[in-house]
Amino acid sequence: MTLTGEGEHGGKGAAPAGDPLVIRDLEFLGGMAAPRGWRPESTLPEIAFSGRSNVGKSSLLNRLVRRKALARVSQTPGKTREINFYRVNHAFVLVDLPGYGYARVSKTTRAQWRPLIEGYLRGSAALRGVVQLIDARHPPTADDLQMLDFLAELGAPTIIVLTKVDKLSRREREERVAATMQSLGIDEEQLILFSAVTGEGRDELAEAIVSLVGRAEGGSWRAP
Ligand SMILES: Nc1nc2c(ncn2[C@@H]2O[C@H](COP(=O)(O)OP(=O)(O)O)[C@@H](O)[C@H]2O)c(=O)[nH]1
Ligand SMILES: [Mg+2]
Q: What's the whole-model pTM score?
């Protein structure tokens, strides 16, 4: 079975030509609720998605896999408390981390998430990379920067996605891209502009993920 499903589609219901990630099979494997709690036994490569609550993570995941409700689009930010695992094409696993930094969530609840998220990121031997979401309309929050520092310390390959870019004017886009590259010290190639409303950036993100998973043939960046 190929990763991208290339050459296996055609006819009725086929995805558009050139789709870097044709979803032929999608399965929810389960949720991890505690740092050393249950997690799937799957040893397939894992790509984790991180961002503050309400950044648009569920909407992005749904767009990515072309499903209406893979990840519930939440009206109640901060509700998802587990790390959810979704297997794609029997080839790799999308890992939906709980949204962090939502003010209305109690300090106690937030204190429980951090060890869960950090424990997973430190402990998953199958993790190949992280997609970090940042709201395109605002500078990265203190929580965003803390997460990025943590990822840098781990050495995890990281893709930065600016979400909800449909809400920006052309001029605001340019300003936010320049400011983000400067404040995070990254190149334009490490940055993906995304909109769950228009679908902008979906294929670019899919391609980046396929590439991270592909690199997994050689093992994790932290493998000995
Ligand atoms: N305009 C616009 N709104 C978005 C986009 N993505 C998410 N939203 C909205 O932002 C809110 C939070 O989205 P959700 O996907 O639940 O965020 P999550 O908490 O990070 O999973 C919802 O009201 C979405 O409809 C986007 O690309 N453009
Ligand atoms: Mg969500």
A: 0.89
